[in-house]
Specification:
The structure holds 2 protein chains of 2 kinds. Chain A is of the alpha/beta class. Chain A is built from 17 helices and 19 strands. Chain A folds into 3 domains: 81 residues, ATPase, nucleotide binding domain (Nucleotidyltransferase, domain 5, 2-Layer Sandwich); 132 residues, Response regulator (Rossmann fold, 3-Layer(aba) Sandwich), CATH 3.40.50.2300; 170 residues, no CATH class. In chain A, the strands form 4 sheets. In chain A, strands 14-12-11-17-18-19 form a 6-stranded mixed β-sheet, with helices on both faces. Chain A has a 5-stranded mixed β-sheet with strand order 3-2-1-4-10. A 5-stranded parallel β-sheet of chain A has the order 6-5-7-8-9, with helices on both faces. The chains are: A alpha/beta, B alpha/beta. At the A-B interface, β15 of A face α2 of B.
Amino acid sequence: MPITLAVDFGSTYTKVVAIDCEAETLVGVAQSPTTVSEGVMLGLDRALARLEAACGVRRADISRRVASSSAAGGLRMVAIGLVPDLTAEAARRAALGAGAKVLRAFAYELSRRDIDELLRLAPDMILLCGGTDGGERKTIVRNAGALAAAKLRAPIVVAGNRAAQDEVEALLRDAGLDCTIVDNVLPELDQLNVEPARAAIRAIFMDRITQAKGLDRAEAFVGRIVMPTPMAVLEGARLLASGERDDGWGDLVVVDVGGATTDVHSIGSGAPSTPGLVPRGLPEPFAKRTVEGDLGIRVNAPTIVETAGMDRVLAEFGGRLAAADILARVQRLAIEVDRVPHDAVDHELDAVLASLAVDTALERHAGRVSTSYTPMGPVQLLHGKDLTATATVIGTGGVFAHGRDPQRILRAARYRAQSPTSLRPRDPTLLIDRRYLMFAAGLLAPFAPRAAVSVMRRHLTNAQELDHDD
Amino acid sequence: MTTKGTLVLGVIGADIHNIGITILAAALRAGGFKVVSLGILVSQEEFVKAAVETAADAILVSSLCGHGELDCPGLRDKCTEAGLGDIRLYAGGNLVVGKQDWAPVAAHFEAMGYDRAYPPGTSPQRVIDELSADFENARRAHP
């Protein structure tokens, strides 16, 4: 049987997912710690040995390979725009949607200090925006000049005012910089256009970034590493929402809890679900990703406790653990970042931390309602995406794959009466990715969407069924 | 893409009257301007940000609820602060409560830093003509 192998060189684990695309079945899944300093092939070889032990798939059976990566720091980007709420935010959203880690978003003219900061951050790529089409052009030209003078080596994607493209391109090319010009991320104030920038970021990631990170040795076996891991998850979510042929699940949310960060992906327009809600602010991307850099259940375990407050953590434990004990444990998790839970308390702590991370991450990702009082009566304003009618929420990441209480964690994604202005999914079906399928589905989407969809449909586990198993 | 100029339009403050501004936006587009309409419930900050990003030539502030005297002051200062020193500001609608004599109202809005203020019932054509003339004069003054 010809097997398609989806590989993810994750920041902690290298995962392999074997799928028979003809039979549309999942053959096996395995993982092993990612090995960056010794070369990523070592970790991949170990994962493949485990895959063979688990389901008998040998290398000779694998006819097609496709890979994503977030190893060696992931795709580290800086976004530059004009007004913080407008093109700088549009640039940030485009970079996040491409699966990048956005180190910083700069607005207005880059100062000498900003350039020093850029040099210190040493991003893998820069997204340079500013001005709507035919709008402000001086700032993006000045910023291109500053980047040219600084001799930053990182590839630059330019997605700003069309009227300034030629001048910006000339400045960057004359300085010998690697630049790609694409359509504006914000051509009109009410039109967000992130796809051309995302495509350019992905192409550069494929062509140049993976080599720079020493991942090219693995490419001899896996072929091109085609996208950053978060983009693969977002594409998997998009495929599941749209379906292979009109059989999609519609609007959905994916929450990915990691050791250092928690990602939320939402697919859907986020348009008001009730009449009378007036949308405000920048248009929302249909496929939107946000990253919470302060919410993760290892490196950032203490930060989760700080953000949620010790009272909530204690309440989650129902008084079975003292505050001092909790603090000592989360501080140890922040140091022993590859610690796996050993006993029931470890497992429960993971579940508590992950629930609080999911709760806060959804609160920040979902839109919120505010009320404005006018002489004509109160008016409800919508800031962000209205997710209340979202039908499906999927949990992915290690704590969902291996944790003991994934359904409890995912329930934290739902609307909370204590926080009524946050437009989170009210009554979604909760599905758990026990087998790391979201990234694999995203990788398979371009060439085997049917197999990807049917494997996901079969193997994403309904949280209620898990409840019955227990 | 040659236009007579870029205009940012919106209904300022806690005001949800969108019919006038919708008609005016359509008329101004037909009159050859590039129109960036922000809709209703627009804050002064949103006007300024939009004008920066689009390099607007003018901001047209609409106020129908009678709170113009509360909502409109300070926009000129914010524009100056944001580097939009020479942007033109126009206001129109039911700027004040009740039927008041227009000349002192217009003078009051000019003192706030608005280039022109329009009373209720102004025809869109008058706005188009006066904007065109103002922009033409500005171009002649700073070619």
